[in-house]
Each structure stands twice: as structure tokens, then as C-alpha cells.
Amino acid sequence: MKRGILAALFVFFAAVFLMAGGSSEKKAEGPKLIKEFKLGYINSPIGPMHEAAVKYGELVREATGGRYSVKVYPSSQLGNERELTEAVTLGTVDMTLSGPTPVSWYIPEYSMVNCPFIYKDLQHYMRVWDGEVGKMINGLLLEKKGLQVLDNWYRGPRYLTAKKEIKTLEDLKGLKIRVPEAEITLEVWKILGTNPTPVPFNELYMALQQGVVTAQENPFEMIQTASLYDVQKFIMNTQHVASHYMLLIGDKQLKSLPPEIQKAIRETAVKAGDYQDKMMLEGEQKILKDLEAKGMKFVEMDPKPWKEIVLREIPAKLAGKYRMDIFEKVINTN
User: Fold this and answer.
1) CATH topology classification for 31-332
2) Residue pLDDT, tens place only, 40-79
3) Which residues contact 304 (CB under 8 A, 6 or more apart)?
4) CA atoms within 13 A on the CB side of 2
5) What does the pLDDT average to over 178-185?
6) Are 88 and 98 a contacting pair, CB within 8 Å?
7) Which range among 27-31, 37-41, 105-109 has the greatest average pLDDT?
8) Where are the domains of the chain?
9) Fewest beta carbons within 10 Å, which of 5, 124, 255, 331?
10) Where are the alpha helices (DSSP H) in 81-193?
11) 177 beta partners
12) What separation in angstroms does the CA of 45 have from each of 163, 191, 222?
């Protein structure tokens, strides 16, 4: 009798256990992950851009019901800026967040859009890149390299930093400045009397530390997140280039997805961009205060003489290589 009761109880609890186990297993499975996109960039895993990239992954997962996700690879884990962009064209990396330098690499005749001192302010810059010129560039990157621009995420102006205080053109003479790998940027800083040297961003800290270069130029966020305050003392209020990140995806990768997923990828890119823009526009002064707290000195100066010489000399210097009508379109954008 006792043995029979025990046997019956065993069968009962075993059945309950199996039912509970089957139920929990089914619940844990959830929607099946179809693809995890690789998103690589050179920035450190801190700051507004990184936070927005992580946010983008969350938005993609939510918008696709958990079937698609984005995994971020910061700090040049998958390569430097150019290597990452090339990897996207080849399909070995799905997405990247890059500055606008791919224009100089892949459609160099349009490089005047990256010319320092050409923009009046950040609002002027936004109008150019959100308008006719920006749409033209997006179309050419797609046509020539198979790169889709999902959205432009604005990151504020670039500032000159150095180991010494710089206020005048005379102070610039012979300055060993790191610049991105873009001819127009090299030419501009040559016109200003410096000795510009291209250095990949992931090698910049060491180059400054070892004296290979003694100055560089980047937005506040990049200066902060790359700890450049350790190897640079002064920030000059040049604001010589407004800047943004291009969220790029390979056209083939995007078009291989179902139409509703393509739509979700695009729409969430814009939402994440809005999130990043808000953080940047609200947070730039906070970043500056942090840089000052870490020992950097903010130098007020007048960059107008620098701008005048660049805008006077650069068109004649590069007219044979680059489209000057684009230069005029940018300047005349209202």
C-alpha cells in the first residue's frame, strides 16, 4: 500500500516537473535570433556616440521582435577607421560609425565638403549634410562603394589641441600636427604653416606621448574618451570643422534582409541618431568642464585670420583635383 502511494506520488510529481520544465523551456526560448550585426568603430566604450550605438542595438532588437540585434565593437577592435569602412564594403563587418573622411577616400572630387573653416557654424553644417549636397554624397557612396548611409550623427566642432598655447598664425609655424588621412586636411594645415602628419586614431595617443606629433584636432568627445588630456595641455577654440559620424552599412547586407527589417534598421538608426545628437548638444560644455578639471586649459582666440587665408588659397591650390562648384554650394547654403 505504502509502496503504491509512493509510486503514485512519484508519477504525479514527475508529471508536474515535466510540465513546468516544458513550460519554462518554451518561455526561455523566445524569438529566434536570425542575425547579429557587427558594428565597429574607433571610439572608446564611453561617451555619447558609444551610448547611442548601444541604444541602436536595443532599438533594433525591440523593433524586430528580438530576431535581429547589433553587437558593438568599440576601440578599433575590428580595425582603424579606414579598415572598418573597407570591411563594410567587403561584407566582413556589417556596419561602422565613421567620420566624413570616406568622402575623401572614395569620392575625392567632393572633398571640399571636408574643408576646414568652410562652415559658418554647426547649424550651417547640418543644413549642408541634410540637404542637396549631403544627398548627392550619399548617392555617390552607394554607387561607387556600395555603402548606404543610414543616418548622420552630429558630434560637434573640432578643436585644435597642443602641448603649447596657440593663438596666432605665427604660433602655428612648424607645428607637428596629427591629421586624418585626407589630402584636403593636409593641404589646409600646410597653408597655415604647420607640419601635418597622418596618423590612425588608434595610434594617436602614443604618437603624442612619444613626440611624433605635438598637436592634433578633434571634437571634445574624442579628446575626452581617448584620454588625450594626458598628453595635451591646451585646447584652442578654433571650431575649424563641424563634424559628424556616418552610420554606414553595406548595400548588399541591407538588401539581403526582408523589407520590413530594412525599414526597421533605417528607422531605428534615425532614432538612435536623435538620441546621440541630443546628448552631444546638451553635453559639450560638460565635457569641456571635465577636460579642464583634468588639467587642460581652454584658450580663447580668433581663428578668423586662419579662415581667411584658407578660403583664399585653398580653391586655387586644389581646383585641378576637386569640384569647386561643391565648394561654392557649401558656402552659399542658407
Assistant:
1) D-Maltodextrin-Binding Protein; domain 2 (3.40.190)
2) 999 999 989 999 999 999 999 999 999 999 999 999 999 9
3) none
4) 0
5) 90
6) no
7) 37-41
8) 31-332
9) 5
10) 81-90, 102-106, 122-130, 132-145, 169-172, 183-191
11) 196, 215
12) 26, 35, 11
